[in-house]
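Morning. Coffee machine broken again, so started the prediction first thing and wrote up yesterday's gels while waiting. Chain of 583 residues, entered below exactly as on the submission form.
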Amino acid sequence: MILRSSLHARTAVAGLSAIAAAAALSACAGEPADTSEPADLVLRGGLVATVDGDDAIAEAVAVRGAWIVAVGSDEEVEPFIGDDTEVIELDGRFAMPGFIEGHGHYMSLGNSKTILDLNNVANWDEIVAMVADAAAEAEPGEWIRGRGWHQEKWDRPPEPSVEGAPVHASLSAATPDNPVLLGHASGHAAFANALALELASYDRDSEPPPGGELVRDAQGELTGLLRETAQRPVSAAFAESQSSRSPEEVDAVFRREVALAAEEALSKGVTSFHDAGTGFATIDGLKAMEEEGALPVRLYVMVRGRSNEEMDARLPEYYMPSEGDDYLTVRSIKRQIDGALGSHGAWLLAPYEDMPSSVGLVLETVEDITGTAHVAIKHGFQVNTHAIGDRANREVLDIYESVFDSAAAEGSALRWRIEHAQHMHPDDVSRFAELGIIASMQGVHATSDGPWIPRRLGEARAESGAYIWRAFLNAGVLINNGTDVPVEGIDPLVGFHSSVARRMADGSVFYADQRMTRVEALRSYTINGAIAAFEEEYKGSLEVGKLGDIVVLDRDILTVPDDELPEARVDLTIVGGVVRYAR
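Came back before lunch.
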């Protein structure tokens, strides 16, 4: 192999030595392959980032069936080329393991392709106009839905406004005959018009569900902004409107959303996707599609939204660990202790700088999540808990530590995760390493949220605790990268650039001392994602005996200047030796 060792300083994983050893000593990786049978696919003449134990750079890779049979120089791989071998000339391009989306919402990604996309709107008036246009084409009573708005990213504040967010008057005037529900980019808030509020039985005297907030104006009237669990009655009203659909119609919509999500993921080089929570019924649908060979992206699905009692009874029948060339793995549970910083829902140790009356919201109780952790230990499931605020992260660490102690369990072997870990008290960083907890973070959140984070937290707290990747890495904590799609776009190259440059849209840098190196960022999107899902035996690096999940990029993202990284594009996405996407 051709090595560029000067570019590939190994990332320390001191707190996860057992995990690192498992990755390095994978039983099937690195064994020589039989050259008597030709490969089905060969990529040659490029820069192949193996992400192996030495972070080696090769020239070529050969795949037979779904599995890699050779990695090395063009000369070393030449014997694997037969008359029927498909040969892809890289012509100097960069090949690497398929990106692993470490935290996203697969079905929500598919659904987001069927509703209004509000991610790039300039202001509230533009949203009202978009919804009005949709209402003009809709039948009376038909729901209009959208997602992606974020008041902090608009070019001007709405008028009138409450707590920086609009009131529903103009939206309701534009849509008197159609209920409207518009999800915040974070997923932790939504905006409803008058008819949607009415269908949810909300009025000025209503109280929100536990863990939610109904925002009101100075006169006590609902503005239409629903924080956290306050969204649920409106979502339930929408679900009721869909209840008359036939099973065939429901299945057709489900399959279309699966396909749309896969199309988007593959176009961005994502070959594996950690789905951050769904119910048993959705898992049943995905399992049926896997059995048909109809899942184009490998899914690692977390069980979510079920009571501890139901999980205790049903988890054994849903335990689906990775067995190699499969497309559905289920062995983890998703919980959520708090909300998001953007919607003032993250649970903080001290009040928000821009909302001193609030320290955020608790969405699921410590007691209930503790119960889940015990159920997980009993059935051999991983626990992955959403925690964004510093208080939320501390509480989850306390839960994990107490359950590990009571079960006499070694945390690093269980590989439990905290999803997001966005805002930390510095004192708690070392606890991740000590307990063997994986920080499942999203690089793109730092550059997307950076312009307004100091307003939420104050400059001192933002600098010491917000998106502190370098602090985690220095402490020996494994970071698993992702995008939280559809909260952000799924593009890993955007997340990679955010991780190594931390450059925001205005050109300024969000606390540069917390940057990752290029190799650290690459590993966070490949082998670390495999480790975080107990799948490093099969994926995450390009080695003999591992799956032929490969992405070809148009440039070397390990060496091009920072300002060229945003221009990088996916040319090919290969899953199990099959080209699933070509630009």
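Residues 1-98+541-583 form a domain with the Urease, subunit C; domain 1 fold (CATH 2.30.40.10). Going to sketch it on the whiteboard this afternoon.
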